[in-house]
Amino acid sequence: MLKMQQPRFQYLLLYVLCVSTVFIVACKSNHHTESNKNTAPLGLSVEFIRQPQDVVIVDQEPEFAWELPSTIVEQSAFQILVASSKILIENNTGDVWDSGKTVSSQSIDVEIKDTLLEVGQTYFWKVKTWDEKDNESSYSEIQSFKIGAKKDIITSTNSFRVEHIKPEEFKQITDSSYFIDFGKDAFSTIEFNYKTSVIDTLVFHIGEQLINQKINRKPKGTIRYQKIKVPVNPLQSKYSLAIKPDKRNTKAVAIQLPDSFPVLMPFRYAEVEHVKGTLESADFNQVAYFSYWEDEESYFKSSDTILNQVWDLCKYSIKATTFAGVYVDGDRERIPYEADAYLNQLSHYTTDREYAIARQTIEYFMEQPTWPTEWQLHVALMFYADYMYTGNTELIEKYYDKLKHKTLMELRREDGLISSTKATPEFMKKLGFKDPKSKLKDIVDWPPAQKDTGWKLATKEGERDGFVFTPINTVINCLYYKNLEIMADFARVLNKTDEEKEYKTLALQVKEAINNKLLDKNLGVYTDGEGTDHASLHSNMMALAFNIVPEKHMKSVVDFVKIRGMACSVYGAQYLLEGLYNANESDYALELMTATHDRSWYNMIEIGSTITLEAWDMKYKPNADWNHAWGAAPANIIPRYMWGIQPKVPGYAVATIKPQLENLNSSSIVVPTLRGQIKGEYILKADNTQYYAIDIPANMTAEFVVNKASKIKVNNKTVLDNGGRITLNSGHSIIEIF
């Protein structure tokens, strides 16, 4: 009996061993799979759009991008597969395009090669990479996209998002009326549930401003309010507000919303009257519309509670004003303006990893310019910001020749300085103006002086600090100088060597002319232009912002700027703060951003707005609106100048980090880039040691700039004795400055 069972026992033992081996191998295989998955690329995008399956891609040769996980330091190679079906891509077959193993560190702006995709076709793609040790990753998740009909523009429009926001406050006022606070102003409408046994009418009041805890029904300027009657009946329980369109912001020149959208109006509050029965908070949704947005892409906190509130206000302002799909000036007109859009663009790049709206707005301006002279000079700035943050050159390649006109270099005289008075109808046509009667007009800031507006303003100078206009305008020529620097860079990118040399030579000539003819060397300040001895904040802050000021006059210019206070608009504040940080005046810049007087961001919060205002206060611009993103400068100033985080080379392969945080006790930040998030922590210790913890995403290095230091340690090793630049590789670094 035992002898008969022995073979069975041996077979059983063999079976157990086999099963165990399979289990161990399977475990190892699963562990290997999980390990590979941890190295797979993530954060995929097509044409800078993170969810391309929701849109139509208009470029038949699109660019791909991805992020690398923190387990990788640097990419050494990649392989992209593009397939015509999901089954093929799942089986690792790129029947449309297989890049093969391509030795390259490029992880953004990777264009499909030698393949023109078909209009109307849906494609599927994924990517894998090799790290610095040539270890191969697993493939990324699969992403799909559809090619649409080719248009005159090359920018694909991103998708929109709809958020259903519940009330933060809901209370019954009388037996038949209720008050609702949705927490924030948003371009939105209301959906609600209501049951009734009779045919009746509810009355809604929606608005942006409260007076004595009630919606202001006669607001000033362009602060929004509307009364809406809603017929109700026993056969219906779900309703949407029929908001009446505004005559001005729905004209042909305004940006039109998609046909699928209801009429939107910015509001935060609602009151409901003539209610029979009981309503509850759960019955109401503020239905808010935004362009694609990922809130977790950026973050900021500090030891200064006012600065934190200012950041939150400005960041939300950027999100809230994406509703039109391009950058518009606010709800009064819903028209893109170049300077407004540039400020919007900078703050969008620092609050979300979103580039499509800026690129679409840039293309809009090439065909539909606006009248202010300085606004034309902001177009090159928009191109340059796009180039630095994306590394993409397609817009430059397409519009380079047209962009030359936007620099206004054709209006220069012999010494290189320009004047808008030289613009002819032929030149206006080159700028894109269709009306032969169109003329350029210098603006400097807005609104202008009281004498020019008819408004009763708080200060007769308006927002121009008494600026005196002359044909040769200092503000315009400072912007012009920056345009020439940018065009020299663009000529280099396009291998136009002769033109690069021309722009560089002209830039030097203009800088020299500004400092010889527009700088009062006795007083050490810039006058407003040729032929006047008046000096305004604007002329001097612009010279600081564009690094025109000679070192020997730096102190006098800075001292002058500081005595002028915030004598500029919310738009001008962008350049005032840039100039101050360029001059290492971080203490005064922080003082301005955290001020509590009526020319401050805190004032916007105090008067009840949750989106930045068009002006500091209604008394400074009586027709101002409460939803204007050009007032949100701190959303980009805090990351780009206070923390000093900017791309050093196009596409963020190398970042610059030049913090000026000495006036804070602590701060933390997250800044989005195409390559991943840059994260920073700062603590000022009791012994005045500055402690930084910096996380650099894979496939990026950073140059950490130290202004003053007696001793520096990086990861507990002394690296520098007397200030300088420290190279940080991908990953986590601890920096201590003593």
Give me some keywords for this one.
738 residues; 7-stranded antiparallel sheet; alpha+beta; 8-stranded antiparallel sheet; 18 helices
Structure, briefly:
The chain has 738 residues and is of the alpha+beta class. Helix content is 30%, strand content 23%.
How would you describe this protein?
With 738 residues, the protein is an alpha+beta fold. It is 30% helix and 23% strand. The strands form seven sheets. Strands 10, 11, 12, 13, 16, 17, 18 and 19 form an eight-stranded antiparallel beta sheet that branches. Helix 3 (305-320) packs across helix 4 (338-351), helix 4 packs parallel to helix 7 (379-390) and helix 7 runs antiparallel to helix 8 (394-406).
Rg over CA atoms, rounded to whole Å, is 29 Å
- Major beta sheet summary: 8 strands, antiparallel
Proportion of β residues? 15-25%
How does the helix and strand content classify structurally?
alpha+beta
The helix content, as a percent range, equals 25-40%
This entry's quaternary arrangement is single chain
Q: pLDDT average, as an integer?
A: 94
**Parts with pLDDT < 50 across at least 5 consecutive residues:** 1-35
| Net shape | globular
Distance between the termini: 85 Å
Number of DSSP strands?
A: 32
Number of helices: 18
